[in-house]
Amino acid sequence: MKLPPVDYEAPATVSEAVGLLAEHGDEASVLAGGQSLIPLLALRLAHPAVLIDINGIAELSGVSANDGYVAIGAMTREYVAEESGAVAEAVPLLAAALPLIGHEAIRSRGTIGGSLAHADPAAELPAVALALDAEFVVRGQAGERVISAADWFEGYLTTARRPDELLTQVRFPAAGRGTGISFGEVARRHGDFAVVGLAASLTLSDGAISDARLAFAGVCDVPVRATGAEDLLVGESPSAELFEEAARRATENLDPPADLHGSSDYRKKVAAALVRRGLRAAADNAAERQ
Ligand SMILES: Cc1cc2nc3c(=O)[nH]c(=O)nc-3n(C[C@H](O)[C@H](O)[C@H](O)COP(=O)(O)OP(=O)(O)OC[C@H]3O[C@@H](n4cnc5c(N)ncnc54)[C@H](O)[C@@H]3O)c2cc1C
């Protein structure tokens, strides 16, 4: 279907974009890569009066390694982050998840900010951001706010960003020494959204787990952190029995939605299998990075 009639603005700077958002508020939609928004418009599931196209704002693109974190501009294309040496080196969990997003053509247009602002609970990047405690920088006319990943995802396709704010940057903490990662997912076909996905990160110090992070995609209307399992893992030595118990704890309170891709029970079983596999892979990876 063709797009509905809509006014179009193409600001050249963040200040101009923020001014337009202040003027139009929730009548406006920000257009980034368009990979989620354009289909929503075509299907008449979104009805903005104005599109604010941020593709021409150069200051919103780029990856920079800083002391302790990697900052990624909201308009950075997914394939640019995928090919970034700084991301591969400092945020390996993000590097592992990026190639699983759709297909190359999608990643060549889709953006880091677009995926995280869209906040699809089955998407890879929200689970990565939640697992790593990423920070979201938003700009409105009143200034800048920094929002933690724990507060960012409020509900289905809903974030803590106010309608008059632009997401400008996402900051991912750098992995420390001894940190191993794994991003696993089960999808019906390569490139499909995950039926269930899991971002896993373990840090080993002297053979014991000193930090554990597990975040699911596809089990709820927001990405979900498995804090009970994380608490169980910390202080213990990696073993098959420990990972089995972690999988039980991580899934005991899950009540995933059922749809044509799988029942709730199936999703729960997949989630448990992903925890076992993800922890084993992350522990092996951590041992290599000691
Ligand atoms: C066939 C297909 C398969 C796909 N498969 C996957 C997949 O497997 N996994 C996955 O994660 N994704 C998948 N996607 C989605 C893809 O990752 C999108 O690129 C992403 O979800 C949205 O990014 P975008 O830059 O295209 O954003 P857009 O579509 O332009 O925008 C998405 C939403 O975010 C808002 N927005 C965007 N940028 C900002 C900003 N800076 N500030 C405030 N609001 C903003 C928009 O207003 C809109 O509401 C798929 C898409 C397609 C078409």
Q: Name the average pLDDT.
A: 96
Per DSSP E runs of 2 or more residues, the count of β-strands stands at 14
Oligomer: single chain
**Small molecules in complex:** flavin-adenine dinucleotide
Rg over C-alpha atoms, rounded to the nearest angstrom:
19 Å
Q: Which structural class do you get from the secondary structure elements?
A: alpha+beta
Tell me, what's the shape? globular
Biggest beta sheet summary = 5 strands, antiparallel
Order of helices and strands: EHEHEEEHHHHHHEEHEEEEEEEHHH
Side by side, the strands of the main sheet go 4-5-10-6-7
The termini sit apart by 53 Å
Write the SSE topology.
Blueprint (H helix, E strand, L loop, with lengths): L6 E3 L4 H11 L3 E4 L5 H6 L7 E4 L9 E4 L2 E5 L4 H5 L2 H6 L1 H6 L6 H6 L2 H7 L5 H9 L2 E6 L2 E6 H4 E3 L2 E2 L6 E8 L5 E8 L9 E10 L2 E10 L6 E2 L1 H7 L6 H12 L12 H25 L2
Parallel strand pairs: 1-3, 2-3
Antiparallel strand pairs: 4-5, 5-10, 6-7, 6-10, 8-9, 11-12, 12-13, 13-14
Helix pairs in contact: 10-11, 11-12
Bound molecules: flavin-adenine dinucleotide.
Q: Could you please describe the fold and organization of this structure?
A:
The chain is an alpha+beta fold and 290 residues long. Helix content is 36%, strand content 26%. The chain contains 12 helices and 14 strands. β6 and β7 (143-148) form a beta hairpin. The protein starts with 6 loop residues before the first strand and ends with a helix. The mean pLDDT is 96. Flavin-adenine dinucleotide is lined by residues 29-37, 54, 74, 101-102, 106, 110-111, 113-115, 117-118, 120, 123-125, 161, 166-167, 193.
